[in-house]
Structure formats: C-alpha cells, structure tokens
Amino acid sequence: MSSARHDPFRLLVRIFAWGGLAGLAALTLVDRGATRMYATPWMWLLVGVAAIPPGIFLLRLFAPARMLRLPSPGWSALAVAVIAVPLVSALLSPYRGPSLLAVGVPLAAACLFFLLSDWLAEDASHRLCLEQIFAAAAAANAIVSAILWLVDLASLSHTELFSSAVFLRRNAHPLGHSNYTAGLMLLGLPWLARLTWSLRGSLRSAAIFATGLTLLNLFISGSRGGLIGLAALGVAGVAVARLGWKRFLLVAGGAVALAALLAVANPRVRSLVGPTDPLQEPNLSTVQRTAMLDAGLMMGRDRPLLGWGPNTTPLAYPRYRHALDGGAENVLQLHSTPLQLWAETGAAGVLTALLLAGLVALNWHRSPVAVTTLAGYGAFALTDHQLDVPAFAAAIAVLAACLAGPSARPASVVSRLNLGLIILVVAGAIALLGARDRTPALNAEALQLARDPAQRDRAVALLSQSLALNPDQEIAHFNLGWLLLVPEPAKAEAHFRAAAHLVPDKGGVYFGLGLARLNQGNRAGAARALALECVNEPLFLASPWWNVPEVAALREPATKEYEHVLAPWIPTPKTSNPWVEKQAALLRSLAPRLGQVSPGPEINYRRERIGYPVLMRNQDIGIPVDLYDVREDPRFPASVPFPLPSKGWLPSPRLLKLLDDPVP
Does the bond joining 174 to the residue before it have cis omega, within 30 degrees of 0? Predict the structure, then answer.
C-alpha cells in the first residue's frame, strides 16, 4: 500500500484541486470572463482560484506523507523568479496597492507548476491524465466560443449573413476580446490535432470536429498575431517531428502558406497587412499599437530594473500619452508580452521570460506537443499580453510542468522551508498591503453627484481627493475644470491645461480652456483655445455653442487663430506625414465656415467612458459620464465637400506645441 494513501490531507487536497479547476473553468467559459472577474461576486471567485494552488502547495510542503519532489534546479529557479520578480516590482511601485493584488496570479501559476511537476513525478500515468484534461479544456473552449459567436450572428440581417460582414464580426468569446479568443485557440490546437492523429473511430471524429472549430474560431477572431502563431505552430510541430530537412521545408512552408491564405481570406486581416497609401487615413489599430510600443519603451527606460509594477500600465501610461502621436487615451495592456514585461517588471521580468525560453528549448524532447504549443503561443505573445488572465497563466504552468523533469532526490527540509517561507511572505504582503486603487470609485461617485447642482461642492472635494492620490488622471482634471469654470475660472484653466497635457486630443478640453480664459477676461487666449478645439475636433467648427453670444463674439479672432495654427508647416524627415498635411490643407479651406451653425435641431449629449471600469479593473463602479455638454450640428458634415478627419487627427506633440506657444 502506498504511503500516499495515509496522507490525512489527501481528500482535502482533491476537493480543493477540483474546486479550483471548476472555478478556473467558470472564469474562462463565462462570457466576458476576463473583465467580469473584476466585478463582485466574480472577484471573490478569482481570489479563491488564485489562493488554491498556494494553499495546496503549503500542505504538500509541511505535511507530506510522500516526500515532495521539486523540478530540476533550473526550473525551480524559474518558478521562484516568477514569484519574486513581480513581488519586488510591486513593492517598489508607485502604485503598490493595486500592483500587489496582481502578484496573486503569478504566485498561483508558480505553485501550480510545482504541484504538477511533483504529481507527474509520482506516477507515469498522470501525464496522460493531464494531457486529457488539457485537451478536454481546449475542446470546451472551442465549442463555447463558436456557440456564442453564432448567437452574435443572430443580430445580422439576411443580407449581412451572406456577405463579408460575417467575418468582420470578430469572435470575442468567451473571455471578451478577440485576441483572447486567438490565444485560447492556439493553446488548444496542437493537443486536439494530436488526438485527431492518434485516436480512432467516433473519438477521432469528435477530435476532428473540435480541431475544426478551433481553427474556425482562430480565423474569425480576426487576429493578425493569431495567424502568426498558427504559422509558428506548424513550423515548430514539423521541427520537433524530425522529418528531415526536405519534409521540414515542405510541411513548414505549407503551414506558413495556410496562415497566409487565412489572412487573405479574412477581410479585416487583409486590410491590415496590405500596402498602405500615405495619403490615406492611417489604420486605427496600427496607430494604437505604434503608440503602445513607444509608450512601453519609454516606461521601461524610466524604470529599467523592475518597471512600474505588475498590472500598472493603465496607471502609468497617462504619464506618456502626451508624447505619442495618437492612439487610445489609455490602455489596459501594451499588446506585446515582452514589451509589457519590460514596462511593468523591467529587465528582471524580461530575463525571467528569457530563462523560460531557454529551458523550453533545452527540454523540448520531454514533450514535443508542449514545446510546439509554447512556440506558437510565444510567437503570438509578441503581439498581445494575456498572462494576467488566470486561464493563460495556468496553461503556461501546465505546459512548463510537462517539460520540466524532477530532481533525482526529494526536496530537502531546507528547500521546503525556504519555499514555504517565500509563499507565506508573498501571501502576507498581498493580504496586508494589496488594495484596490481608490481613485476610480472617487471619480465615479463625484461625476454621479455632480449631476445635482446642490452636490457640486461634494463632487469638487471628491475629485480633488482623487487627484491628491494620483495627479495623472485626465478624467479628474477635465471634469473638475467644468465644475470650477464659473466660480474659480483660474483653477479651471489649470485643470484643463493639465487634462490637455495628459490627453492632448481630448474632445472638449480646449473649449473648456477657452471658456475659463474668457471668464478671466483673456479674450486672446480664449480665441486660441477655441481655434484649437476646431482643429482637434473639426465638428466643433459648426457647434451650436457658437450661437452663445459670449462665444460668438470670439468668432473673428478665433478664425484668425485657426488660420494661424493650420498654417503650412515645414516638415522634417521625422515629422513629415503626408496624410496630416493633407488634412491641414483641407481644414484651412473651412476657415470661413468657423462659427456658422445651420438652423434646425441639434445633437446634444454627454460622453460616456464605457471602458473606464475595465481599464481600472473595477467593474463595481458605474460608467462615468463627463460633465461636458457636446453640441453638434448634424447638417454640417454633409455640407462639407470632403470627409472631415476624426477627432485627434493631429499628432499630440503638435497639439501641445500649439497650446504652449505664446498667444499674441
């Protein structure tokens, strides 16, 4: 009889293990799980799922009926680094509280890796069981993803169903974003393909079906990186099969050709990878990714050793937004795992990733299918970052455990004590020092209260408190400016300028700045600000706000400023942008239209910040609504002889230079 049967914790461990697996499945398969997990009660499920692997590992360390076997020293060092680097980075981060909460996922992944390595060393049959669970999870992901995408198609018309519009409806299920879909499919595809090759009969038919669904989901995700990962899967799979160089070239070329064919077949991907006309508007996705690359490099450059802390990109990114040519006002992640590691954990995080890559390359023979999966997903990870989502962190831990070999001897008492101490210290730091960022809740409450004029002072106090905690918040500066516009216009001007220096292409910020200057008697400065609003958001040229007498009185000086700021630039090789110069020339021709509002009904609304709760990883707050009343003339765009450029067409550094230039 095995001594493991006398382990008093064996039943408890099994209950926790299956409970953790069920919780992980729920967080993955529930629709929009990657963002839902930051809302109550799903947040508590996330905490439970992250706490189970460390808890089980502590039981194995301190009450082992069967001596624990650790993986080989290189792999053990890697797992310790996966825990230690994020912890130290978070402790030294300017955003320590929320960053420490993010350490829970790598801690859980490292502990899961240790547990699986020990479990695989216990019995050879466990490897087959683990592979079956992984393949079953891949099939479940593929089926749920396809079903939810088909439900989405129900909203399309009959004509759209039989057109390319079907493929433009990117599959964002089940986690909530199409890039997550691509990542899940890449992780599951090699395992399902191997089952298709090895099984027979009805089981083989089921594996073929699941493999086909996985490929379909990957295709309809519309992810460029997903197709790059697919090509990498094919090349790596052929390489580990050792078919000879002629067959390698043939099959690898076929895999690359398949990925290229899928790229051409998908309308969205085809439009992104084709040649571009320099006089055409830049692709929004390309602009955003370029901005993220620039910001990530600068973030890591400023804190090169340990970065800004895990999951702090949405908090640190606003510091760099003013230096970027465009892109989103803020981002959840930088769409590149190496770049994300550099920005958030510095050189220490990048070296940890390189250590993983080296160990995978040295141990590929232990599990060819695992190394193939990691090769494909690694290529995809160059274009996205997903390791903060438990499903992906767990998958990497499983794949690493399949490649890691156990050490020759059971772990010594010293090794077990050291590992236990590390886990207890990390868990204690998370529990005692980890905390949600307070500013999103303060901002959301303030904007809700500000709808009632009687609560204005309370709203001002909450936004001021929020800025005291973190001054790099455009949302707080922008809305505080509107609240202070009449009673304290000088302070309002300062907040509008701060908002503009955080998000230079924010719609309404220059209009607010102009009103603040007007309320202080600075008509020249007000005219410059109104001109900048027209330049940044061309729809403002005919905004009904120009019918307000005090604003209308500034039409003539604002027109002169408008012509001045759009005067032809002398571009340098670094600043030359044919499309931008073309838009500036077109907008100069609209100078006589500035302030002319056609008669008839107007469009009036306030902008909602739909993505703010996701960015702040706090889905319990409501969607904030800005205090700026947007007023638009719906007839103006139709009367313009050319399409108006969208808001923010002018690169941010140019906007800020125009803002900071002295006003005559």
Answer: yes
